[in-house]
Design goal:
Largest sheet of chain A: 6 strands, mixed
Largest interface: A-B, 44 and 43 residues
Number of domains of chain B: 3
Radius of gyration of chain A: 17 Å
GO molecular function (chain A): ATP binding; ATP hydrolysis activity; transmembrane transporter activity
InterPro entries (chain A): AAA+_ATPase (IPR003593), ABC_transporter-like_ATP-bd (IPR003439), ABC_transporter-like_CS (IPR017871), ABC_transpr_LolD-like (IPR015854), MacB-like_ATP-bd (IPR017911), P-loop_NTPase (IPR027417)
CATH architecture of chain A: 3-Layer(aba) Sandwich
CATH superfamily of chain A: P-loop containing nucleotide triphosphate hydrolases
Number of strands of chain A: 10
Distance between the termini of chain A: 23 Å
Helix content of chain B: 40-55%
Radius of gyration of chain B: 35 Å
Strand content of chain B: 15-25%
Shape of chain A: globular
Oligomer: heterodimer
Number of helices of chain A: 7
Domain ABC transporter (chain A): 5-230
Structural class of chain A: alpha/beta
Distance between the termini of chain B: 18 Å
Mean pLDDT of chain B: 77
Largest sheet of chain B: 11 strands, mixed
Organism (chain A): Streptomyces mangrovisoli
Shape of chain B: globular
Helix content of chain A: 25-40%
Pfam families (chain A): ABC_tran (PF00005)
CATH topology of chain A: Rossmann fold
Chain lengths: 230, 839
């Protein structure tokens, strides 16, 4: 079995704090797996996500993503790692307000040096799949929360990443929009996309992931598997 | 951690303190500690002070930029202002301060007694007088045998008095015989305190020790000694005269001065008044020097002041504008609108006040040496930074800072609390989206196109940056042009000195050669000093020796002397040329240089004074020979008040060359050539010497130094203005940067994005600033020329080359990029997680 994520003895301390914010943690996520990370505030969920995304570096241990050890990469190499192997979806969307929907989606592709035509083609394909084609020239500020999150998902997928990371993807959405995004994530997983989902919402975790780890005070307190995603 | 709040370009509200899990809610702009302290101490002066201190301390880069930008702006304004003050009628100010004499009169003591002279002080219209002082003229020789020009020596017991209160620049006043004070214009490497002079070239001449240097605005004398000393020198053969110095109640015009002079002469025996100098003549000469610099300093002064206002205004309003959310939080915890306004105005005023104080000190330090140079050029009494400049500039700067801070602070104070918080958190407005759409179509990397469009989100801030870069480019373009023009002026001065070697016949021209005389200071004895004691060489023999000498490339002969021209009172200086004189040609403003007999080339002032123009004929009398010459060119020649005439020697049958100016062949050393030629012509009665390299004139050096200094300061202020704007912009966009980095923007791409956000501004600044600087140069230089009574030739006016202008335009972009480098580096280093959490 190929692991997309391998964490070995990973710990993260901030400043001079005695207790680590995370770890030590050992974790392996297989290709095509959907993992939900749950836990109370301050349990280390976002820290874990940031370490996997290469947004932060561990104090101890090694982080390997898609076969590449990333905990010692330069900032430049980490940026390349993120743009090619990782797609990220945030709670508050993090779309660039001054770019149109299509420009937001194309941005990661353009950062890799893809031609404008290739980036536009891929963005169009994703917008079709996600049902946001009609908003291509709109600005994010005019879209509903659910629509914005779809744009964020499209942006995350534009470079066909090995791993999709979602940080509270429904946390800022109303119930209906949350349901839409939940279904979208399920569809993506069913399509073979490896997904790591950080959430407080146990219902979302159950719906989208067949494996859930529960963090308490930076450590994995529970690691449970379901038969299949509901 | 790389991203930090308050210690760099980063967000003041950076949540990553490193002290806890980042899942905690992002902190507001006021940290928890500050909030607690504020709440504990209540909302009063203490709380307000704490908020202000925290605001100043946490945004250190912005605080530093405010302080440094204000300091540079104030320093530039103090320098420019004090120089403008110094050049505002410096003669009048110095003359008034010294109670200078309206009339400096010399009398024959044999025809007017001391009592008779003393009685003239009671004449109607005389408001003050000094004297009679014994006076004589001596031609001293310095310790190296160098001859000083003839000097007026006046005997005075002290430098003070109700008229002509001398400014003793250094040393002390003579106490005994053998001591003299020299005019400060002689102070330099040749003559210092303690230097000795011989009163004449005679073997038994008296030795005089220089004990001081003094300035007389009215130029009543060149040298002062005790009255007994002057009488003693006069008894050695120099003619003794009596000097009286008068001030009149009416002395503003030439006719009034003529009446005053007549009144004095009429009150004394006939022939007693042997000479009189009007202060108007002295003033005219002094102001000619001063007026040249005024347009230049005015241009720089205006540039500096406008830039100061723009930069300080944009820095302060930007800092207040970006603190809106903090303002909202302050109001939420109970600050009144007035307290918020006070807090933000104070927050701007504290670093600005520090910058202003430092700027005044720096401005004074920079201005003093320039003023000292200015003073030596103007020949006026000691110049210092006017006290009111030191008061007015900081007061105006404080006012500008206060107003710049007050306007946005008042806006913030009026905002409802929730609105203030919302303004600080809300997505940006739709401004500039069209620019993003347009830039996105450019065939450039996405980070670059994204950066190029970003200034349009803040048009006012972008405009301030454009103006800062524009003014910086204007200053640099103007300064580069000015420096080249001044160099061209220096190169055009005295073209005969461009010759490698000069040979002299030993004879003097009509009035004796004058051009080697320095304006002040001792004259070093020329190599041919002994030639005058011999029979002058035959010019034809010297010419033959030059022609026969190996290494001669070309040569031409000249002679100089006084000439008269109808319509011009007194004499003009005539230089007559023999042979191909093109190597010694003056730069031509209009027309052409001499090409044959019957032609004359004259300066601008001559044309204006005589009302003639090119093509007209003038009758010139040289050594009693009068010929009619056709004006064929207007030369750039301001020597002798612009009243030199240049003609072909062949036009005057009796004239013969007294000097030959020689160009040597390539590879021939002028000194070796001169030695060899000297050996050949000395037996004939002549001599030869290599011309030394001429240094730029004092005024040129001073103007260039001023231009360099003021440009450096203005460009620095422009760079700081850009730095501040980019800091504000980067801080506002830090979350977007985090998003970009999260989706894969590399550090290099991030730097590219930030730099691209200012490149467009730099290019626009360059495109506007270079033509504006070009136009300013084209306007100021002719004004400076007119002040010096001369037109300017193309070599002085057309100094810009296309590559140079392109480089200056690029320099505009470079200033912008340099200003943005710091924030760009920070943006590249900031941790993505930190940036993403920043609100």
């Amino acid at each position: 079995m190929t692991h997309v994520i391998e964490l070995e003895g990973v710990a993260k301390r901030y400043g001079g704090a005695d207790a680590p914010a995370l770890g030590p943690v050992d974790l392996a996520v297989a290709e095509g797996e959907a993992l939900a990370v749950t836990g109370p505030s301050g349990s280390g969920k976002s820290t874990l996500l940031n370490l996997v995304a290469g947004l932060d570096r561990p104090t101890e241990g090694t982080v390997t993503v898609a076969g590449q050890r990333i905990d010692r990469l330069s900032e430049h190499a980490l940026a390349r790692h993120r743009r090619t192997r990782i797609g990220m979806v945030f709670q508050f969307f993090n779309l660039l307000d001054d770019l149109t929907v299509v420009d937001n989606i194309q941005l990661p592709a353009q950062l890799t040096g893809a031609s404008r035509r290739a980036a536009a083609s891929r963005a169009g394909e994703l917008m079709d799949v996600l049902g946001i084609q009609k908003h291509a020239r709109a600005y994010p500020g005019r879209l509903s929360g659910g629509e914005r999150q779809r744009v964020a998902v499209a942006r995350a997928l534009v470079n066909r990443p090995a791993l999709l990371l979602a940080d509270e993807p429904t946390g800022a959405l109303d119930t209906a929009s949350g349901q839409e995004v939940r279904e979208l994530l399920v569809d993506l997983h069913r399509g073979g996309q490896t997904v790591v989902l950080v959430t407080h919402d146990l219902e979302l975790a159950r719906a989208c992931a067949h494996r859930t780890i529960h963090l308490v005070d930076g450590r994995i307190a529970l690691d449970t598997r379901a038969e299949a995603v509901r | 951690m790389t991203g930090s709040d308050g210690d760099g370009f980063g967000p003041a509200a950076g949540p990553d303190t490193g002290g806890g899990a980042p899942e905690r809610a992002a902190r507001p702009d006021i940290d928890g500690g500050s909030l607690k302290r504020v709440l504990r101490s209540g909302i009063g002066g203490g709380a307000l002070g704490r908020v202000v201190r925290s605001g100043v301390g946490r945004r250190r880069v912005q605080t530093l930029v405010i302080a440094v930008a204000t300091m540079m702006a104030v320093a530039a304004a103090v320098v420019a202002g004090s120089l403008m003050v110094a050049t505002d009628a410096p003669f009048d100010h110095a003359f008034a301060r010294q109670h200078g004499p309206h009339l400096t009169a010399t009398f024959d003591p044999d025809k007017a007694t001391t009592a008779q002279l003393a009685a003239t002080r009671h004449l109607e219209g005389v408001t003050a007088s000094a004297g009679p002082f014994p006076s004589t003229t001596i031609s001293p020789v310095d310790g190296n045998g160098g001859h000083l020009p003839s000097l007026t020596l006046v005997g005075r017991a002290d430098p003070g008095g109700t008229v002509d209160e001398l400014d003793l620049k250094s040393g002390r006043w003579p106490r005994k015989e053998g001591e003299v004070v020299l005019s400060d214009s002689f102070s330099g490497d040749f003559l210092r305190l303690g230097s000795t002079l011989k009163s004449s070239a005679d073997a038994d001449a008296q030795t005089l020790t220089v004990v001081g240097f003094a300035l007389s605005a009215g130029q009543s004398a060149d040298m002062w000694a005790t009255p007994g000393q002057v009488r003693a020198l006069a008894s050695d053969g120099a003619a003794l005269a009596s000097q009286m110095l008068y001030r009149f109640d009416s002395a503003g015009t030439k006719s009034r001065m003529a009446n005053d002079r007549k009144k004095i002469a009429a009150a004394l025996p006939a022939g007693a008044l042997t000479g009189a100098t009007s202060w108007l003549d002295t003033k005219h000469q002094a102001n000619r020097n001063a007026s040249v610099t005024i347009p230049f300093l005015f241009a720089f002064g205006v540039l500096g002041l406008v830039m100061s206002v723009i930069i300080v205004g944009s820095v302060i309003s930007g800092s207040v504008g970006t603190g809106l959310r903090r303002i909202g939080i302050l109001k939420a915890i109970g600050f009144t609108p007035r307290e918020v306004v006070r807090a933000y105005v104070a927050q701007a005023l504290i670093p600005a006040a520090a910058g202003i104080a430092l700027g005044v000190v720096l401005g004074n330090l920079l201005a003093l040496p320039l003023l000292a140079d200015t003073e030596s050029v103007y020949g006026t009494v000691s110049l210092s930074v006017a006290w009111w400049v030191d008061v007015l500039v900081p007061a105006c700067a404080l006012l500008v800072v206060g107003v710049a801070a007050l306007v946005p602070a008042l806006r913030a104070g009026r905002l409802h609390t929730i609105e203030a918080i919302a303004v600080g958190r809300a997505p940006r407005t739709a401004r500039g989206r069209w620019a993003h759409r347009a830039a996105g179509r450019l065939p450039l990397p996405r980070p670059v196109t994204y950066g190029l469009a970003s200034p349009f989100a803040h048009p006012v801030r972008a405009l301030a940056m454009v103006l800062a870069v524009t003014f910086g480019t204007v200053a640099a373009t103007f300064a580069v042009g000015l420096t080249q023009s001044l160099n061209a002026v220096g190169a055009a001065d005295d073209p005969q000195n461009r010759a490698d070697v000069t040979a002299v016949t030993g004879a003097s021209g009509g009035g004796g050669p004058q051009r080697h005389q320095a304006p002040a200071g001792p004259q070093q004895a020329p190599a041919a000093s002994g030639a005058g004691e011999q029979t002058p060489a035959d010019p034809a023999a010297v010419r033959a020796a030059i022609a026969a000498q190996s290494g001669t490339a070309s040569y031409y002969g000249t002679t100089e002397g006084d000439a008269t021209v109808p319509g011009v009172s007194g004499t003009v200086r005539a230089t007559l040329y023999q042979g191909d004189s093109r190597p010694g040609a003056y730069e031509m403003i209009h027309g052409h240089w001499l090409s044959g007999r019957g032609q004359v080339v004259v300066p601008t002032a001559f044309l204006e004074r005589t009302g003639t123009e090119i093509g007209d004929s003038v009758r010139v009398t040289f050594e009693k020979e009068t010929v009619s010459l056709r004006i064929v060119g207007e030369a750039f020649d301001s020597s002798n008040d612009g009243m030199d005439v240049h003609a072909d020697l062949a036009s005057f049958t009796k004239a013969a060359p007294t000097e030959f100016h020689i160009e040597v062949k390539s590879g021939v050393t002028p000194a070796a050539y001169a030695t060899k030629l000297s050996a050949a012509v000395r037996p004939l009665g002549g001599d030869a010497f290599a011309e030394s390299v001429q240094e730029g004139g004092g005024m040129i050096v001073i103007l260039e130094a001023m231009a360099a200094l003021l440009t450096l300061m203005l460009v620095s202020v422009a760079g700081l203005g850009v730095l501040n704007s980019v800091v504000l912009d980067t801080r506002e966009r830090v979350h977007d940067l985090g998003v970009c980095k999260a989706v894969g923007m590399s550090p290099r791409q991030t730097v590219g994005y930030v730099l691209a956000s200012v490149v467009g501004i730099g290019v626009v600044g360059g495109l506007v600033g270079v033509p504006a600087g070009f136009a300013l140069h084209g306007y100021v230089l002719p004004v400076m020329g007119r002040a010096a009574d001369t037109g300017l030739p193309p070599s002085v006016l057309d100094v810009y080359g296309t590559p140079e202008l392109v480089l200056l335009g690029v320099a505009g972009a470079l200033v912008a990029v340099l200003g943005a480098l710091g924030p760009a580096g920070w943006a590249a280093r900031v941790r993505t997680a930190t940036a993403l959490r920043t609100e």
